[in-house]
Amino acid sequence: MSMNLLHKWCCRSAGWSVFSRRVLLPWALGDADLGRSTVEIGPGFGANTDYLNERAGSVTAVEIDPDYADHLRKRFASTGGVRVIEGDGTDTGLASRGFSSVVSMAMLHHVPTPALQDALFAEAFRVLEPGGVFVGGDGSPTLPFAAMHIGDTYNPMPPATLPDRLSEAGFTDVSVDTTPGALRFSARVPS
Questions:
Q1: Rounded CA gap, 106 and 44, in Å?
Q2: Exposure check for the chain: N or C terminus, fewer CB within 10 A?
Q3: Beta carbons of 153 and 65 less than 8 angstroms apart
Q4: Among candidates 139, 135, 173, which has minimal Cα distance to 56?
Q5: For residues 149-173, b (16+ Cβ closer than 10 Å) or e, as one string?
Q6: What is the C-alpha separation between 161 and 8, in angstroms, rounded?
Q7: Exposed (0-12), middle (13-18) or buried (19+): which is 122, by Cβ within 10 Å?
Q8: What DSSP designation does 109 have?
Q9: CB 130 within 8 Å of CB 191
Q10: DSSP secondary-structure letter at 141?
């Protein structure tokens, strides 16, 4: 999933990390109980991984880009609770029903097709234990969001279609909320 230089700079900046920790993650995750074991799909530079590690018993970060995965391994080598694997969010290779939560933050728009996004939802469902939660947030289609992604893989998630797509993957208790320029979602695997 390609990112242009401006986007890379922004996502690895201290400003983005602070914004993510103080605003984006608390808003997107709300009061979701991440439980004992979280899968973070698409951590990129890891701006959200520290926060998730504080809220869950352990974090398995699944990153498709080998350079980012290597960066994350080095960054979290001395931090307990974070395991980094290089892999695809549509086929993680993780155990079925082995995790209490899956988190996807600001990366769904980098999944190149709706079919692959749906495959990612199905994979999140597969790795979650009964009662597990899938939560996250993403940008919604706006002109400024599109402008930031010139030259990127850019496939924004239409908020109106997300509830049905998550339900089709098997999730229940689906909730999608929007604010200008952003969306957040939560869904549960039936108990």
A1: 10
A2: C
A3: no
A4: 135
A5: beebebbbbebeebeebbeebebee
A6: 28
A7: middle
A8: G
A9: yes
A10: S
* Beta-ladder partners of 2: none
Nearest to 85 by CA among 59, 107, 63: 63
Exposure on the CB side of residue 47, measured as CA atoms within 13 A: 23
Q: Residue 39: beta bridge partners?
A: 60, 102
Q: Tell me the pLDDT tens digit for each residue of 114-164.
A: 999 999 999 999 999 999 999 999 987 777 776 777 777 778 888 999 999
The whole-angstrom separation of Cα 174 and Cα 49 is 24
In terms of DSSP bridges, do strands 82-86 and 99-105 run parallel, antiparallel, or are they unpaired? unpaired
- Sheet with 38-41, strands from edge to edge, namely 82-86, 59-63, 38-41, 99-105, 128-139, 182-188, 172-179
Q: Rg of the Cα trace of the chain?
A: 15
Range with the largest mean pLDDT of 2-11, 149-158, 179-188: 179-188
Strands (E), the chain: 38-41, 59-63, 82-86, 99-105, 128-139, 172-179, 182-188
Of 97, 87, 30, 33, nearest to 60 by C-alpha is: 87
d(CA 113, CA 154): 9
